[in-house]
Amino acid sequence: MDFLNAIVALANFVIVPAVAYGSQLALGALGVTLIYGILRFSNFAHGDTMAFGTMVTILVTWWMQSVGIGFGVLPTALLALPFGIAVTALLLLGTDRVVYRFYRRQKAAPVILVIVSMGVMFIMNGLVRFIIGPNDQRFADGARFIISARDFKEMTGLQEGLAIRTSQGITVVTAVVVVALLFWFLNHTRTGKSMRAFSDNEDLALLSGINPERVVAVTWIIVAALATIAGVLYGLDKSFKPFTYFQLLLPIFASAIVGGLGNPLGAIAGGFVIAFSEVTVTYAFKKVLVYLLPESLEPEGLVQLMSTDYKFAVSFAILIIVLLFKPTGLFKGKSV
Amino acid sequence: MKKLLLATTAAGLVAAGAASAEDVKLGIILGFTGPIESLTPAMAAGAELAMVEVTESGKFMDGGKVEPVRADSTCVDAGAATAAAERLITSDGVKGIMGADCSGVTGAVLANVAVPNGIVMISPSATSPALSDAEDNGLFFRTAPSDARQGQVLAEVLKEKGIMSVAVTYTNNDYGKGLADSFTAAFEAVGGTVTGTTAHEDGKADYSAEVGALASAGGDALVVAGYVDQGGPGVIRAALDSGAFDTFVLPDGMIGSALEETFGDEIDGSIGTVPGTESEGAGIMMKLIEEAGIENGDGPYVGESYDAAALIMLAMQAAGSTDASAYKEKIMEVANAPGEQIFPGELGKALEILAGGGDIDYVGATAVELIGSGEAAGGYRELEVKGGELTTVKYR
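Output (structure tokens, whole complex):
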């Protein structure tokens, strides 16, 4: 019984939140990694692209709620998601046309593109704050829980409760579906194959007649979809505030780099590595140990490696360790 | 107009010693943006209510007018608050400041602006124990009690309810840290156990990590020494969602209508304290607020704001001068016995008594009694969430 309680406590406070957070990071990191692989630069505007997509989705969600369109137990935001993706895709294609294409034609060094993307980041940042404001926005509706802590306790008779929020369930399911679709697209369609060819060897791809502008456009559209989905899932699960999306940039980049930049599989693995380390390093294990250990060995303190204030430091530390020992990431990516 | 004003001021100066008609500006520096932005409009309106009352009585400095000037303290940004206070004094020429609100910015404004410029500051809501010993040249007062007292009250309430083990989380600033420390000390003194203490940063999207650590520490209830417009509700939401805690102990920063709107009856049984008294004055104040139609007038610190503004004006009247170095000595005098008791809405009468050389004991909306270096002795209202609403249990 104690053993079960320990497992449930661990699941409630570590595993469930980390899996949901990891899925969100993985989707974000996939976007970063695709841009790095195909367009060959680190896109600093990714966090704010997520914020922009989420903002459009929120505005459409509010409109739907006001005219009475709902999605039953699921959040209305899922219905509004396609609109968010469409508008974000237009924005990204527009940015590419106005900004990035100019530098691409000049064959600008990646480092210049990074700085350019930083400029784009500030503009998007301002745009989002200008339209929706800097404050917290609530847009979640539908049922809050798949199973609440209280129900779980009653069902199982355990002392510990396990809560799974609807948003956490949706996050994981959506992430799996999106990743499966993305891999199918990259591996089995003509466009996907041409993207991979372009990523592997640009000159060879051009020689074999691949239209580079088309590849770039498709990449931006996919990135818009990934960013918007990641942003909306994060917003549903936590809350939407432009500044927190800007802060997400660090763990997302850490995930992409840890997994190996340019490698989609690595991005997913990296997302979960970062999420699990952030959560486990800052979790106080006292409760779990009290259940597991005999009474004489019960810990006095909280058994917490690091205060929760240092959450972001964890992603930094992992990033540095990986770059020191495995510059191309856990899965073979491109070196930074 | 400006010339006319100058002329009257000059005339006032010539008529040495005698109180004379003078238009006075008072600064109201509160966090109109930031973590307590939902509380401050009603607080400012409370202070302005006192100023309008004094102006309309026509007895202030022989018919002088009092004009409020608002400025934004932001509650958290000491630099912005200092700049705002500097502007009040140098460009608006205020003679006294009602504010600031949060403890951190209040300390900054006091040290950087009020003391160098020699301006009196009365804060309605800065409650950090550290401000009691701040270097103030006798210029700083507060109509709110120090959190050292709130910590004791919370500890007593918990003891009476039989809650003897709690976890504590506080917003990572002067207010949160001071309150958490004073509560921990007081609670351990009455025999309670604080299982764990974790700070939380305001403005984050997700507090599940903090709550995870607190849940691991355990306890019968969670003390959330935070802000109702910032991280506080996020912490409570995460604790409810994960089933970690369902009873919360909420000090003054967490009490507000936003709490009822967000959680409703989900937090039934939770306990709160907020400065407040059962005095006659509180009832009269409520009536004044209703007549003036102030939105959210039943929020915290509205009466304290009224009292803070009133004290500045009464002390000016008693000293017969708007010069801070003269009237700062009078503030304790008008606030405390002996003298005729003054309730809200009776400022005209008080001004008349003072003009005649009499003595008053300002009771005001919050039974003002200044102790020590000039802070309220502190009555508290004990609250409980019942059926989704904050209801008053009793005063202590």
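The two ends of chain B are 51 Å apart (CA to CA).
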